[in-house]
Amino acid sequence: MLPGEWAERVNTVRVIGTGVMGRGIAQICAAAGITVQLADARHEAVESAVAEIGRMYHKLAGKGRMSAEQAEAATGRLVPLSDPLDPADCDLVVEAVREDLDTKRELFAGLERALPQRTVFATNTSSLQVTSIATALQDPSRLAGLHFFNPVPLMRLVEVIPGARTAADLPDALTELVRRLGHTPVRATDTPGFLVNHAGRGLITEALQILAEDLALPEDVDRIARDVLGLRMGPFELMDLTALDVTHPAMESIFSGYYGDPRLRPSPITRSRLEAGLLGRKTGEGFYRYEDGVKQERPEPAAPEPTGRPVWSDDAALLDALAEVGSPVERGEEPSSAAIVLLTPHGHSAASAALSARLPAQQVCGVDPLSNATRCTLTVHPATDRDMARAAWAALAATGRAVTIVRDGPGMIAQRLLASIVNTSCFIAEQRLATPEDIDTAVRLALGYPSGPLEWGQQVGPRRVLTILRSLHSATGDPRYRPSRWLVERADLGLPLNETGTAVADVL
Ligand SMILES: NC(=O)c1ccc[n+]([C@@H]2O[C@H](COP(=O)([O-])OP(=O)(O)OC[C@H]3O[C@@H](n4cnc5c(N)ncnc54)[C@H](O)[C@@H]3O)[C@@H](O)[C@H]2O)c1
C-alpha cells in the first residue's frame, strides 16, 4: 500500500499513556476523524484524559475553532480501554508512557503478542533511542519514532524517526499521517536528541558557558536574546519554563550520546542548581524567582546623564546615530585623548581589538556589532576607565536604545549565542542528520526562533559567523567553538548555508 493510502485509511489509533503527551496526541487524532483507544497503567488517568479532552473540544467550539457537532463527534470517538494490551483491532499504537527503556520495551513486547502483524507501532520517546526500544520486538521493522512536542495541539511539529531496522516504507506512511493530523512532519535520525533537542543545545549550552565565564547575568543574556536576536524567550527563562529536572538530564544524555563532543558540553551550574531544587517556575525559583507564578525581574538601572564627551568609533553608522541625537562625535583617523572609543569587533574582545589597533585601552569600550535600535551591548574590560565607561553608557542610552553592560570578552553575547545556534545546526546538516530544509522548519516551529538556524546564518553571513567562531576558538582554545565543515566549506565557496549543493549521489 502507498504511504498516503495507508495514512488515509487509518481508522483507529491506540494511545497508551494518557499523561500530558498522550492526551494531546489523542485530542488531535480524534479531531481528525480517527477513533482513539486510550489506555494507561492507571485507569483514573484514562478517565481524566477523556474528560479533559472533551472539555478542550468544548472550549474550541466556544471559540469557533470547531462546530458543536464536530466537538461532540470527536468526543464520541474517544474509547477508553481498561487494558493497554486489549486485543481490539487498531491500525497504529502511539506509546507515550513514562520515559523508561524497560517499561517501553515490556509494553511493546506485550503489544506484539496481543495485536495483529498489520498494526504499526510508534514511540513518542524524547531521549531514548528508537532502535533500543525496537529490540524488544520479534519484528523491529514495525516500529518508528513519532516525536510530538508539548503542548501537542499547539506545537505543530512532529519528528518522524526511523530506527535502524524500521521498514523502509513506514516513515513515509507516518509522515503522511502527521499531515492528515494537520501537523508538520520532519524526518530525523535516531541519534541523541533527534533533531530539535540536538539543535536546541546551541543556545542553552552557550548561555551557560557565558554564565560560567561570569560575562553577564542571566537576565542580561535573556534581554539580549529577546531584543537583539528576536527570540521569544531568553535561554534562562526557557530553562526555568522547561525545568532543570528535564533540561539538565537531556543535556547530559545528548552529550554522553555523542561520546563527549565538547560542542554539546553540559554545565556544572545546572547540575548544582538541580540538586538544590532550583528547578524553575514549578518550584518557584530557578534563574528567576516567581511570586504567584509571576517572574520577578530587577528593573534595569537608569542610565546616567550624557557628559558631552566626544565619541570616536570604528563604526560610522554608530557615530551617525550618536550625532543624530546631538552627541559630539570625532570622525578623524585617530581619537583624541578626551574621546570615548567604541570598538565593534566580530569575534574578538574590545580589549584585543584595542591592542591590535594600538588604541589607548583605558578609553576603549566594546559595542556588540549585532546590537540594534532596541538594545545595544556595551562591554567593559579591566583597563577601561570607569568614568569613560559611564560616559559611553550615557551616550548610547541617549540614542533611545536600552543598554546592557557586560564584561568584555571574545564574541560578546549576541554573537556567541548566534554563532553557537548556527554552528550546531551546521553540524547537524554536515552529518546528514536532517535536510537543511527540515532543520530550519523544525527549529522555527518547535523552538520559535525568528528564522531557521541555517537561514539565519545565511542572513547574517556565513563568513561573519565563521569569523566569530574562529576568534572564539583561538581565544579560548576550546574545541566547542571549532567551526563545522558545512560552515567552512560554504563560507569559502560562497554557497548558501541552507542548501545541500551537489552531493556524491547526484553524480552517480
Ligand atoms: N512532556 C513533554 O514535554 C514531552 C515531550 C515529548 C515527548 N515526551 C515523551 O512522552 C512520553 C510521556 O511523557 P509525558 O510527559 O506525557 O509523561 P506523563 O508522566 O505525563 O504521562 C505518562 C503516563 O504513562 C503512564 N504509564 C506509565 N507506565 C505505563 C505502562 N507501563 N503502561 C501504560 N501506561 C503507563 C502513567 O500512568 C502516566 O499517565 C515520555 O516518553 C516522554 O519522554 C514528553
TrEMBL record:
The keyword Oxidoreductase applies. This is 3-hydroxyacyl-CoA dehydrogenase. Residues 12-190 form the 3-hydroxyacyl-CoA dehydrogenase NAD binding domain. Residues 193-290, 411-503 form the 3-hydroxyacyl-CoA dehydrogenase C-terminal domain. InterPro entries: 3-OHacyl-CoA_DH_NAD-bd, 3HC_DH_C, 6-PGluconate_DH-like_C_sf, 6PGD_dom2, NAD(P)-bd_dom_sf. Its EC number is 1.1.1.35. It comes from Saccharopolyspora mangrovi. Belongs to the 3-hydroxyacyl-CoA dehydrogenase family. It holds the Pfam family 3HCDH_N. The keyword Oxidoreductase applies. GO terms for molecular function: (3S)-3-hydroxyacyl-CoA dehydrogenase (NAD+) activity. Pathway: Lipid metabolism; butanoate metabolism. Keywords: Oxidoreductase.
